[in-house]
Amino acid sequence: MDLLITINCADMPYMFAVAGMGFLTVFFVLVLMIGIMKGMGYFFTRQRKVKSVAPTGEVEYEEHAISDNEVVAAIIVALKMYKSDLHDRESEMLTINRITRAYSPWNSKIHGLTQLPKHK
Amino acid sequence: MIEFLETSIVDSLGNFAKDAGVVQFFTDGDGYKALIMICLACFLLYLAIKKQYEPLLLLPIAFGMLLTNLPGAGMFHSEFFTGGHVNWGEFTAGNFGLLDVLYLGVKLGIYPCLIFIGVGAMTDFGPLIANPKSFLLGAAAQLGIFATFIGAFFLGFELNECGSIGIIGGADGPTSIFLTAKLAPELLGPIAIAAYSYMALVPVIQPPIMRALTTKKERMIKMSQLRQVSKKEKIIFPIVLAVVISLLLPSAAPLVGCLMLGNLMKECGVVDRLSKTVQNELMNIVVIFLGISVGATAVADNFLNEKTIFILVLGILAFSLGSAGGVLLAKFMNLFAKEGKKINPLIGSAGVSAVPMAARVSQVEGQKACPSNFLLMHAMGPNVAGVVGSAVAAGVLLAFLG
Q1: Is B155 on the interface with A (CB under 8 A)?
Q2: pTM for this structure?
Q3: Which residues face A53 on adjacent strands?
Q4: What CA–CA distances, in Å, run from B264 to B234, B248, B275?
Q5: Measured in whole angstroms, how far is the alpha carbon of residue B39 from the centre of its chain?
Q6: B62-84 burial, b for 16+ CB within 10 Å, e for fewer?
Q7: Quick count: other Cβ atoms within 10 Å of Cβ B233?
Q8: Which candidate, B381, B5, B104, places its Cα nearest to that of B227?
């Protein structure tokens, strides 16, 4: 276990400096990116709002993000109920009327390439 | 004449037997080590095939390990790369093996960057653009890298080795390989295996840490819907990020630049063919080369020592601390956030890269606390911020220690 006893103490201050500076640098770069992205986000959302006001002064309806999942669920249920009222209730029974297989040369055994031996 | 023929045949058979790998297991002093490595390679193959632990990478890595440890095959020569650089003289002499040539892509930092192009083309940065605060969680999750860097030093590793071991905490395979190939190439085998193994074990490692650091009330926090991100924003984002980070930290430019190039290909919508190619064909080809050549570095002398055990222990420590760092910062941010704007701390752990596995873990844990809670898109923000963060951390370590 040589590893445990051969710590290079001379490197210790540098090691702490690298760890501290490194972590702070990562934070600094990413915080800077937050600033840039926030600025970009502000610019683009503002541009979209300006666009949504038509020159005549009438407000065009833009797609609003629906913020609540429960609202979405309520809309879906209402639509479902509305649509289910539009047509009559059906018997809900499925009947298979046709059971014979349609003939086609593509599924014909006679035209198959592999002729299997016939056991007599 | 007959005697002469008999002698030459016996000599030839003798030489043939000496050259046979099976004999070298027993005649060579360290032959048993190669046998252990082959068994280890078979175990990794089992994990990849049967348990499906990151099989796309673990399988080629394990097979590369198998090939390089076959005595007498001469497929990889670590002495060609001693001293931290490529000894081109050996290559021009023509004594190289197949894995020596493939390894050049790792040594010259080509494969990780090509993989990053593919990763960029497969990643949606929308959640990060919509909520830039996710960058903070991605930064906090890099705590594991620097804490492990310190821990490795106290276990007696050299500074450059500490940097390579610490980067395992970024939970980003290509970044780990990129940095280790530059700082401590002799540790590439154990570090790559530790990084990919722990990435596969994200659903096992992270949940206990997440639950230990949060209350049920915190885990039930519902986050508000993210704003819509326009196509323009998605196109400008990779260009701005690549320029800013490369100007501030040139050593991170290869990784961040390639990541953003791939993303721009996806978002601009005019190079669909290129985007599909880097996501599929290029990515798959590079993964094969990268896996085999990384596995090839796991030769017995480099692998079977106490350093490997320390690396595996430090790797899991790095990973756990990274996950904890993200969760704790999210809790800290909540102290200042208004009601309705609070962050679910579970998304903090997704700040370690491991895209998209870490985000999925946040989603699953969130739903365990509250089944109507959907955290996946919120967790994707810190998750992709973690990819950028670990690339930046690698650049910082390379700048200080390279």
Answers
A1: yes
A2: 0.78
A3: A59
A4: 8, 21, 9
A5: 23
A6: bbbbbbbbbbeeebbbbebbeee
A7: 21
A8: B381
**Cα(B120)–Cα(B270) distance, rounded to whole angstroms?**
16
Nearest CA among B87, B140, B84, B101 for reference residue B289: B101
Residues in chain A: 120
CA distance B347 to B363: 8
Instruction: Compute, in degrees rounded to 10, the torsion defined by CA atoms B72, B70, B184, B108.
Output: 80
Residues of A with CB under 8 A from a CB of B: 1-8, 11-12, 14-16, 18-23, 25-27, 29-34, 36-38, 40-41, 44-45, 48, 63, 65-67, 69
Contact yes or no for A15 and B132 at CB 8 A = no
- Residues for chain B: how many in total? 402
Beta carbons within 8 Å of B95's beta carbon, 6+ residues apart: B77
Tell me the per-residue pLDDT of B168-189, one tens digit each, with 9 for 90 and over. 998 888 999 999 988 998 888 8
Q: How many CB atoms lie within 10 A of CB B319?
A: 28
Of the residues A33, A45, A51, the best mutation for testing chain B's interface (the one with the most B CB atoms within 10 Å of its CB) is: A33
Cα-based angle B93, B96, B99 (whole degrees, multiple of 5): 160
Calculate how close chain B gets to A67, using CA atoms only, in Å: 5
Beta-bridge partners for A94 = none
Q: What is the identity of the amino acid at B202?
A: V
3-state secondary structure at position A90: coil
Q: Pick from B212, B218, B224, B209: which is nearest to B349 by CA?
A: B209
Structure tokens, A65: 């993000």
Which residues in A2-118 belong to E strands, given as ranges?
Answer: none
Establish if B56 touches chain A: CB-CB under 8 angstroms: no
Taking an 8 Å cut-off on Cβ atoms, the answer to whether B139 and A31 are in contact is: yes
Which of A3, A31, A36 lies nearest to residue B155, judging by beta carbons? A3
pLDDT tens sequence across B310-367: 999 999 999 999 999 999 999 999 999 888 888 999 999 999 888 888 999 999 999 9
Query: Residue type for A102, please?
Result: A
| Cα B230 to Cα B371: distance, rounded to the nearest angstrom | 30
Residue-by-residue pLDDT tens, chain A, 120 positions: 454 457 777 888 999 999 999 999 999 999 999 999 999 888 888 877 777 665 555 555 555 555 677 888 888 888 888 877 766 666 667 777 776 777 777 777 666 666 667 776
Alpha-carbon separation of residue B353 from A90, B24, B68, B126, B202 (angstroms): 53, 43, 30, 16, 10
CA B180 – CA B186 distance, rounded (Å): 8
Tokens of A93: 């029974």
Q: Which residue has the tokens 């002064």?
A: A57
